Amino acid sequence: MHLPLTILTLIGLASAQGSQGTGKTTRYWDCCKPSCAWPGKSTASTPVLTCDRNDNPLNDRGSTRSGCDSGGSAFMCSNQSPWAVNETVAYGWAAVNIAGSNEASWCCSCYELTFTSGPVSGKKMIVQATNTGGDLGNNHFDIAMPGGGVGIFNACTQQYGAPPDGWGERYGGVGSKDACASFPEKLKAGCNWRFDWFMGADNPNVSFRQVACPAAITAKTQCVRQRDVIDQTPTGPSTVPTWTPSP
Ligand SMILES: *[C@@H]1O[C@H](CO)[C@@H](O)[C@H](O)[C@H]1NC(C)=O
Ligand SMILES: *[C@@H]1O[C@H](CO)[C@@H](O)[C@H](O)[C@H]1NC(C)=O
């Protein structure tokens, strides 16, 4: 088969842009060591940073067992909570499943999500894939947000003394911003984010495209992929303050 050069060029450009498409979101915060925190999950030289029970970085190069496994003591660091960059952009992390791809391809990749339904329609969020999940469908971003529900696994009881099924419902988490007030101090801002910037959106749909990670995101996970389908050099400043609406 002979394809015209222009079509071949377009195919080349499409793959050079990484994955893109439309998908769905859910939310979770299970306090577990995320899957991309194990060594060798991707081309990144360092796996996703995890923390001990007291939220101190482990710097163990991924060797500590997850707090979700019996006897494990590695947990998700509280600073891998979403934050608002400005009124229309937020940064954060997610458990990911991309259709036709695999964990080695998405671990520590970043995706720009544009919300396409619900109150956040039109807002964007850049997430780094730190996790995956057997219960995720195709093109599914399970966005990490404290109080979003523990889902299948729960290390929040061990790490923070959360109720047996985590805070709120096991799937979906707490139902209002009031509940965030009684959260552990380090998780409050991420819990509030859901009801402020994210406007309490309930699993909005998205369109997505793979992008180089903002350096402000990789600074917190220390996980940076080698160049692959896209240039993975982190972009922008390594710290980006939290935007708060003017009163
Ligand atoms: C919000 O932040 C993003 C990322 O830095 C930037 O590209 C965009 O222009 C900003 N938007 C506004 C309205 O400030
Ligand atoms: C989200 O996308 C799914 C699949 O395309 C669709 O069935 C559903 O109606 C969408 N939800 C909203 C709220 O647009």
TrEMBL record:
Its EC number is 3.2.1.4. Keywords: Carbohydrate metabolism, Cellulose degradation, Glycosidase, Hydrolase, Polysaccharide degradation, Signal. It is an enzyme of class 3 (hydrolase). The active site is at D30. The keyword GTP-binding does not apply. GO terms for molecular function: cellulase activity. Residues 25-36 form the Glycosyl hydrolases family 45 active site domain. Residues 1-16 form the signal peptide. One of its GO terms (biological process) is cellulose catabolic process. InterPro entries: GH45_Enzymes (IPR052288), Glyco_hydro_45 (IPR000334), RlpA-like_sf (IPR036908). It catalyses: Endohydrolysis of (1->4)-beta-D-glucosidic linkages in cellulose, lichenin and cereal beta-D-glucans. Belongs to the glycosyl hydrolase 45 (cellulase K) family. This is Cellulase.
